[in-house]
Design brief:
By secondary structure, the protein is an all-alpha fold. It has a domain at 30-78. It is 69% helix and 0% strand. The protein has three helices and no strands. It starts with 6 loop residues before the first helix and ends in an 8-residue tail after the last helix.
Length: 78
């Protein structure tokens, strides 16, 4: 995957990460539910249709989401 240079995308990712951590820290959503949300999001992109250029973007997006899951989503950055 190419190096991300999209400020809006990076901001959205950071906000979502913070929200998921806050939901977990507040005991509103257990880790298994958070992983489920991420898996659903990845599946949406994995099953996307359209022109090849759009499918490639969806494939890269699904890979990023799956990498987040595999990397342990609840690991806080220092």
């Amino acid at each position: 995957m190419s190096v991300q240079r999209d400020p809006a995308g990076m901001a959205a990712l950071s906000i979502c990460e913070a929200l998921l951590l806050a939901l977990h820290d507040s005991d509103l959503l257990p880790e298994r539910e958070i992983v489920g949300v991420l898996r659903d999001a990845a599946a949406t992109h994995e099953n996307a249709h359209g022109p090849e250029s759009e499918r490639q973007l969806h494939t890269e997006t699904a890979k990023l989401i799956n990498d987040i899951i595999l990397g342990g989503i609840l690991v806080r950055r220092s």
